[in-house]
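Slide 14.
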Amino acid sequence: MRRAWKHLRWLGALALCALASSGHAVEPVTLAIADFDYLDTSGETKDQVAAHAERLKNFTRLLSDELSATGKYQVVALTCPEPPCSAGAMDAQSLTDAARQSGARLLLYGGIHKMSTLVQFGKAQIADLESDQVVYDRTITFRGDDDNAWKRAGEFLVEDLAAKDLAQ
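Slide 15: predicted structure.
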């Protein structure tokens, strides 16, 4: 019996050594997040410009906070000469130059389109600034136009991005 325990301890120690030697820490990839653009073609009469601007800001903050929390991404601040720092407001070269100057390897950008009172579409893309290639391209849809609907859409996007290995 004593010999069996000795054997088990030896096997356990061997397994721990194997895990320790293979489990090297992976550095998070630097990611700049551009402001998302917004288009409302719903035709609603109520002026929601301020509410949508606030939701866009919260959406971007959620992406930044939650993607950082995954440990896969280090979100870096994106600074542009004239806000907004978005794909719709800037030419592609200026936006990617700003992301490179921020130290980012990846650039996340996109937009939200409110098509009707209940339906919104989102488009998110990530460009790898080293290879100059789009490495992520996702269209999402979400129902509703309240804080909770936007939060769920952002959480879905974070979940999808966390499952990807974009910096190969």
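Speaker note: The CA atoms of residues 7 and 155 lie 47 Å apart.
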